[in-house]
Specification:
Shape: globular
Helix content: 40-55%
Radius of gyration: 17 Å
Largest sheet: 6 strands, parallel
Strand order of the largest sheet: 3-4-5-2-1-6
Number of strands: 6
Oligomer: single chain
């Protein structure tokens, strides 16, 4: 479950006040994007990444407290932050350079892909920032990760983007957009 939302400070506070329940039980993910306007035509620099990292850090603090108190078990992969462009570059690296470079990229990519599937909280930063349609092969890979995360009990996903869900659909494809849009929407303006 992911909620499409442009967050206000109040919404962020409500989310982190009950972070363990929101991430582990309700599995409420977030898609944070900016609405471009005359003063900010690209929707950049509005605090989406800072907010996502703040949520991730708060989750780690609360999860650690629960582990120390004995209320929860320690797991290998509690949270991970990944730039979507770096994930795509790592995927593309399997097909570029020397055979040794391709092999190293493939190993790194598939290790990261498995980590993204099993991690409790994943932040994908800057989804659809390149402004052009991704390759069919990478679309399949990204869809597999997001679909797995949205249909299994494995975790919650937070995504940031400088484009709306329509822009995500244009760049990342209908299936990925549907995984991110299968949610309740509450348009709020800026942070």
């Amino acid at each position: 479950l992911i909620i499409l939302i442009i967050l206000s400070a109040f919404a962020v506070k409500r989310y982190i006040d009950n972070i363990l329940v929101n991430v582990l039980e309700k599995r409420i993910g977030l898609l944070m994007f900016s609405i471009p306007n005359d003063s900010n035509p690209f929707g950049t620099g509005t605090g989406k990444t800072t907010t996502a990292v703040t949520i991730l850090n708060h989750y780690l603090v609360e999860r650690t407290r629960a582990i120390v108190k004995g209320d929860m078990e320690l797991k290998d992969d509690l949270a991970v932050f990944v730039k979507a462009t770096e994930l795509q570059n790592l995927f593309n690296g399997q097909f570029r350079g020397t055979n040794d470079m391709k092999e190293k990229s493939a190993i790194k990519y598939y290790n990261l892909k498995e980590k993204l599937k099993r991690t409790e909280l994943v932040v994908f930063d800057d989804m659809a920032t390149r402004g052009s349609k991704i390759s069919e092969a990478f679309e399949e890979e990204l869809y597999e990760i997001l679909d797995y995360r949205s249909t299994s009990e494995n975790g919650t996903t937070i995504c940031t983007s400088n484009v709306s869900i329509e822009g995500i659909r244009e760049c990342l494809g209908e299936r990925i957009a549907s995984r991110l849009a299968r949610m309740e929407t509450r348009p709020l303006s800026r942070f």
